[in-house]
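Quick start: read one record
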Amino acid sequence: MKMKYSFLLMLMLALAPAGAQEAMSEKEKDRKAILAMAGSYVVDFHFKEVASFQKGYELTPAYDSTALEWVVAEEVSENKIVLQHLLQTSRGIVKHWRQDWEYQNRILWEFRGDGHWEKMVYPPEEVKGTWTQRVFQVDDSPRYEAIGHWLHLENLSQWESRPTNRPLPRREYTKRSDYQILVAKNRHALTPTGWVHEQDNYKLARREDGDHVIAREFGLNRYDLTREDELEETRAWWAENRQTWSHIRKVWATVFANNHAIRLRSKLDGKPLYKHLFQLSEEASQKENYDSEDFQRQVAGIIDQFMEPEISSKPETTTGH
């Protein structure tokens, strides 16, 4: 399968001077653009259904929310950058989503629906010059992953993904059951005041007679830089909790390495995975004598109870040519 640019990307390439086109392949410019997303922000989340494809379907009201968010570069290396998002609310600090960026990555975990992700292996030629964005849930379980290219012009740095499957967003999965997969295309672009995350989403219903798109949704999340002292409380909280979460990430890395497919059940003892791990992390971070090996064993035990064993041993799939 050959990588394809979007029409917008092709147009910009055609109009760009030769020097700017060459800059697309400059890895260091890509890395600097990714690292530029770290900082203290006021974030505006906006999602609006713009078209219906199902007879009788009524578009849902737009979703709007504003929050303070700190994005910290948790890991930085030549081929990988980890950005952790932390949300500051009136009810306290929330460890939010995480995005890992990997250069010329060949392995993607693709969402198949019903808590099921499958490992896909791409040929080297298909990922040349690309960056994979891996996005994780608040408990560091998988969410979605996508391959894309960064584009750099004189005043624009932008990454655009191929379409990718996602689970239902948190704003909807407790309220809706009329669709099962969000097919999304992502665009990240730096701005003079921060960055924007744009989404073109299709809401896909899985039915006995096939897949049906019920609606198209547009998403725009604006990250505008704000004073760092507005998120002092968040930075203090993360200083106390980052150690336990680094060990939770380590356990997940082992899970990904040892499985070719993963299916996670939605609840255990009436609680979702994130509540189990948040409670375990909070208890461990308050202990004077923190035993990292014992903590990781407890985390692994909880995750193992959420895993559906009949699918977790499935062989990986190779794609491309």
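The two ends are 6 Å apart (CA to CA).
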